[in-house]
Amino acid sequence: MLWVLTIQNATMWSGKLARKENSSLSVRVNGRARYWSGGTRDISRYMHIPGGPSFENFELREKYVPGQLFYYGLSRKTPEELVERL
Fold first, then answer.
1. Nearest to 13 by CA among 68, 86, 65
2. pTM greater than 0.90
3. What are the per-10-residue average pLDDT scores of the chain (86 residues)?
4. I need a surface site. Which of 6, 10, 45, 81 has the fewest CB within 10 A?
């Protein structure tokens, strides 16, 4: 699947419905402060990300249970606006 983001600023979100406590549920996050300048390992050629560091990947991980649901989305709202709804 290929998609193109046509808005300048967006917030990606993910979540799941609250059920009973599950000790296998975890979150994995990684981010970056600079773009890799392809074809070189010269750090001086890496470009700073405008606005500062950003999350690159965010994963919810949980032991498989038939019927479990995870939700992912993209919003024009800021992270703060999305959290206010919780």
1. 86
2. no
3. 73 79 83 80 85 83 84 88 80
4. 6
